[in-house]
């Protein structure tokens, strides 16, 4: 038995590609002539200029900034007019970084103004010659794949914080698993692994996370795999499926608002102090969210009501098919009218507190055959399954990803595992020769 364990463990460890330590590069010291290193940024050799970096402050204007760098008013007006189609100088925003390249002589006159819209996009306004021009650029973005794992101690946000995982990735996972795992009720010890893309500018500046390639979530000891797959190469649509090609989605979203918490569930025996502790059934699910949060249609359908009552406030009702309808209450504003066809995820209104409510939330009501039911208790129809002709191809596609996921350790305790093996192999040799290779590995280890 012990021997078997050893083999299994060894298999686990040796079957996963451990990253090879890179050979140290031998560097040759060759005497070189002293040449100043070129520092190229935004397409300019910064050595040729005095470089001034700053951010737009409250009250700053393009004119004032340039004035401070020795450009006179007529020139500023000329620049603003000439570049207005590419760059509206009135639109510079507080907090945005900019760089000014100035002459290296005593005049220290601005020559180039570079405005950074975000980490990736920037505009270069060049006025060093009489020819004034503005050009928009994008910094080249490198996409890398990152593999991380986490174990829930308190909640998902804490794990994300501790492991340096972008919160967008956590949100992405809660979307992928919306119907499989209740992210509001995770348990201590639940754990996950995720492979996702990260964007970097100039190979070093983090510029946000990209798509989730594959994920593994273990909830109450049950494993759930998810893989991103392009299910229509012509439309370019993607969706997530599990390791057996089942869709992870339902025809309905789990809830009508993202990033919110359920403040009150469907409960026919709810008692409310305000009403003398009498039973006041709650036939909706309340999602607390900030005023103005978009409310999403949970499934495709046609708007049958978009109106106002004293109790419901501003509300919308959507008929999805002959069986299901959904209703959304207490909106600040409605975004649809009766007869509109809406698709799953469309914004139909915004969270408010109109009607009979004590705080901002959306009361989500789920109707089945004309009766209000608890959506979480329903066996809801699954979203469209993977096309049968794609299934084989899909399974082929995910095989290496399953392997990759399985190889991500939960904690960096590989060394402990190796020690554990060394201890175990002191047991007498067994007759088990089912796998020569792995036995050989064990023998080599024990010496
Ligand atoms: Zn409610």
Set out the fold topology.
Blueprint (H helix, E strand, L loop, with lengths): L1 H14 L24 E2 L2 E2 L4 E6 L6 H7 L4 H11 L13 E6 L7 E7 L4 E6 L6 E6 L2 E11 L4 H7 L4 H10 L14 E11 L3 E15 L2 E11 L4 E5 L19 E4 L6 E2 L5 E2 L4 E5 L5 E3 L4 E9 L3 E7 L4 E11 L6 E2 L4 E5 L9 E8 L2 E3 L14 H20 L6 H11 L11 H11 L1
Antiparallel strand pairs: 1-2, 3-4, 4-5, 5-6, 6-7, 8-9, 9-10, 10-11, 11-12, 13-16, 14-15, 16-23, 17-22, 18-19, 18-21, 19-20, 20-22, 20-23, 23-24
The chain binds zinc ion.
3D architecture notes:
With 447 residues, the protein is an alpha+beta fold. It has 4 domains: 40-138, Nuclear Transport Factor 2, Chain: A, CATH 3.10.450.350; 141-241, Nuclear Transport Factor 2, Chain: A; 261-377, Glucose Permease (Domain IIA) (Distorted Sandwich); 412-447. The protein is built from 8 helices and 24 strands. It has helices at residues 2-15, 62-68, 73-83, 156-162, 167-176, 388-407, 414-424, 436-446, and strands at residues 40-41, 44-45, 50-55, 97-102, 110-116, 121-126, 133-138, 141-151, 191-201, 205-219, 222-232, 237-241, 261-264, 271-272, 278-279, 284-288, 294-296, 301-309, 313-319, 324-334, 341-342, 347-351, 361-368, 371-373. The strands form 5 sheets. Strands 13, 16, 17, 18, 19, 20, 21, 22, 23 and 24 form a 10-stranded antiparallel sheet that branches. It has a 5-stranded antiparallel sheet with strand order 3-4-5-6-7, covered by helices on one side. Helix 1 runs antiparallel to helix 7 and helix 1 packs across helix 8. It is globular. Residues 1-14, 18-24 and 413-447 have low confidence and may be disordered. Bound molecules: zinc ion. Zinc ion binds next to strand 16.
